[in-house]
């Protein structure tokens, strides 16, 4: 039994309480508060000190659920120490609440596990820092709405005034202020006497108390208070705290509240129920369709940037104009386009090229990604989304310096995002298959689980409100809303319900099959949620480790693969110069068709249109007219229409008739009549053309501008090299150097694994043993508690040699090569050559120490030897 549970050995401090824990309990503390082992403390006293620092306590309070936080808030306004019965009364009230009574042991165990509360049930103590953060004050009113106690409120009041209040309240006068305040406090805590006093109060005075009872407890009064206020002030039911300010004492408020510290205790999490239900097969099919659309959208985005994407802003990121152009190219809204851009960046498929004229482009990883099977490409995207701290929903908002947050720019990392995404999907996984919850129910549950967490950064304190947007919604809630929307776009959910591959993605087990009576009969049916009716709410499951996530992602890809459509190897050519792809196309076919034709419409079937410009684009890429005829004949289920064959032959016949090269630029053609036609055309005036020879024209424009200008005039020029060879234009030539995807910004220290926890607990125990082991004292050992022993080299050597013969353990002071001093308990085995070999109880292993680095030695006390 630990000392926290044994009244006979009640701990006197948090360090003693931690010393009474077993290794499993210490490991649980370090797992729930990983900042305590960064770095590993030397002993339990240092661990307790670190656990009481403001930054660590704030972080621990932020991770409490609603009822555990309400329990801590109740302890902050209770006596110090408080009994379990007193705490239960503050939470359940005079009438009692069965749900509170059932949930309180678990909430108290959570606070104890996280070292926010220590002591037995008869002497519960809230860590002093937490009490200071949660206690009421005029600057930071308590979340309970309670004011200071009578003793605190009357601390600066004159003894005469206190005696007047006591007399007016009907109490006998006392000889000192302390006893008078005690009598007044006893009166306010007595239900019967308090009821009798309030029965005498005027109705207007009772109304004043009712306005203050649930907080804030402070009010303003004039120098000459009204009669209803004077009646309360004379009896101490309101006490002055400053000129013009009065407060409702805590004891009075608790009596008016029937003993409750909170207006509405929330021992149970709000249920997440199904707002609509669908057949699981429909959900999976819908999600698979969305997954395929997501892949197509990312490909379309990066294909549009193949020849070099938008420029990088000087401050980093994408300009508003370029985001609008991207949204138009993807035929979607700007926020959705920003999400796809950020997703490609998080997955490492998109980055800046780092050149002087810095632009965004696809990375070499994009080409590798395109060659993966479809399901694996989806898995890579959703894994990047799950773990990314960059939050696309913030784009377009303002940062702390009132600067606009841009896509791909700085300032978008929110460390809470991965945790919120994982938790939202976990809540969906807890519902039956095909069940879709309402967004508000999910948000309410998340707020109950983390009421103090407003975002990825720690709040200034638990008494401050979370970071909010203009709608009054904190960042954590906004991330949850974005998660529900983004999961639908990625195909993790379908029609609002989690798909089978979505469950596998987060490592959630398949739900138990429903009985026939629970089968939904329509989209509006609601399903019971049995897992939320217990009194001990389960803690949110932790996110998966990288190894577990890799396994879960592979399982999700395997489930998704059969649901994805098989790529087709054919199209349907039509007489109106269009081709219809009745489904997704195989990659070589899609790539070639994307060069030969322009996409006219998308949907269940994609419509491509052939134009002179698109055919010329295919010829520019190195294809011949015969190649294009053969390609269409091989991949069309319908005969090649005559208009399309004529179009290809006509463009091919004129293609390359003109040749453009670098002079600054020139045009050459064997047919001087064509050059005469160009010179005579008014549209050629801007090109600065002049004849150098019957078959050659020089231009002021550069080769690219000359090509575009001649094409706009209806010609089909071809670019040529300095050797006179035709240059082949390839659209996929631009790639960035190899780039690493952006690393997530962690939300504090990572949760330690079992190996690190075991080593940390072992090190803390050993250090505590060395710091607390009693030792014999002597006149030559002036070292006090916590100080290193000091003995001469001769005394140290003699004591070591004697311990080798007797097998006794010794307490030593040791200074390492870096100058770090420590205390150790060792059992010497051998002393020779200026070294002592000993079993080190602190490190739990045999070590060798240079004698000249041992500052002193002392024998352990006999009862410890």
From TrEMBL:
It holds the Pfam family WYL. Residues 571-693 form the Helicase XPB/Ssl2 N-terminal domain. The keyword Glycoprotein does not apply. Residues 134-154, 452-472, 506-529, 768-788 are annotated as: Disordered. The keyword Cell membrane does not apply. Residues 795-857 form the WYL domain. Keywords: DNA-binding. One of its GO terms (molecular function) is DNA binding. This is DNA-binding protein. It comes from Streptomyces fungicidicus. The lineage of its organism: Bacteria, Bacillati, Actinomycetota, Actinomycetes, Kitasatosporales.
